[in-house]
Design a protein that fits this description.
Layout: H1 10-19, H2 22-33, H3 38-43, H4 46-49, E1 56-58, E2 78-82, H5 85-97, E3 103-107, E4 120-126, H6 135-145, E5 146-157, H7 164-169, H8 183-192, E6 195-203, E7 206-213
Parallel strand pairs: 1-2, 1-4, 2-3, 4-5
Antiparallel strand pairs: 5-7, 6-7
Length: about 220
C-alpha cells in the first residue's frame, strides 16, 4: 500500500484531493490515464446495500473517499485499513469531520486484515491491487475475512491493450506500483481466491469488478 509512505509527498496530497471530488477525478482520469472513473464512485453504493449490522472492510482505504456513502450512526463495524500513515491520518480526519463514529482506522497490510475468518459482509478493494507485491494473496485475504456469499467490490489498474501513454505511466515496480496484473490475471486471481465475478468493466487501464465469495 505504501513504500516509505509514498503518499506523504505532494502527489499524495493532490491524489487525496481529487479522489474525494468526482467532478475533478473524472477529467483527470480521462486526461492522465485515458479511462473513466465514474464506475468507481457508482460502486460505492454497495455500502448502502449491505445489511446495516454487517462489517465492512475498506482496504486500502486511502484518505476515505468511500466514507461519502456511509451513514452516520450505522450500527455495523467499518474497518478502514491502509499501510500509509499519511493516508490514515487523512481518513481519520475525514471520518471525524463527517461524524462517523463507527469507522475504525487501522494500519494493516492487505494480506493481514485484523479480523477473524468469515466476519465481514462487504470488502472494498479500491486502487490497491496494482500496488501490492502479491495481489493474489491480498484477494485470498479478502476471501478469508468475508462470510460465505460475501461481496467484494473494487477497482485497479491493469496492463495490456493501452497505447504508449499507458505503457509509460503503468510501469511495474516503479513509484508505488507492484507487478500490475493484466485483466486476465486479475480475473484469475479472483477465481483462485474463490470469488465468482458477477460484473466487470474496463475503461482504459481501469478495471472495475463486483464479485461474490462462493456460498458454503
Amino acid at each position: 500500500m505504501a513504500r516509505g509512505d509514498f503518499y506523504e509527498s505532494a502527489f499524495g496530497v493532490a491524489y487525496s484531493t481529487y479522489m474525494e471530488r468526482p467532478w475533478l477525478s473524472r477529467p483527470i482520469g480521462r486526461l492522465a490515464w485515458g479511462g473513466d472513473s465514474r464506475r468507481y464512485y457508482e460502486s460505492m453504493g454497495a455500502i448502502a446495500e449491505v445489511a446495516p449490522e454487517a462489517t465492512i472492510v475498506d482496504c486500502p482505504c486511502g484518505a476515505g473517499p468511500a466514507f461519502r456513502r456511509l451513514d452516520r450512526g450505522r450500527p455495523g463495524r467499518y474497518l478502514a485499513a491502509d499501510l500509509s500513515p499519511s493516508m490514515l491520518r487523512r481518513a481519520g480526519r475525514r471520518a471525524a469531520a463527517r461524524g462517523l463514529e463507527n469507522v475504525e482506522v487501522v494500519r494493516a497490510d492487505a494480506t493481514a486484515i485484523p479480523l477473524p475468518p468469515g466476519s465481514a459482509g462487504l470488502f472494498l478493494s479500491y486502487w490497491g491491487l496494482h500496488c501490492f507485491d502479491d495481489p493474489a494473496a491480498a484477494l485470498a485475504e479478502a476471501a478469508r475475512v468475508l462470510a460465505p456469499g460475501g461481496r467484494l467490490v473494487g477497482s485497479c489498474f491493469v496492463r495490456g491493450g493501452g497505447g504508449l501513454r499507458q505503457r509509460l505511466l503503468l510501469r511495474p515496480h516503479s513509484s508505488d506500483f507492484g507487478p500490475i496484473g493484466t485483466e486476465a490475471e486479475v480475473r484469475g486471481w479472483l477465481a483462485g481466491a474463490g470469488f465468482e465475478l458477477g460484473d466487470a468493466e474496463r475503461s482504459g487501464p481501469m478495471f472495475f469488478f463486483d464479485a461474490r465469495l462462493a456460498a458454503a
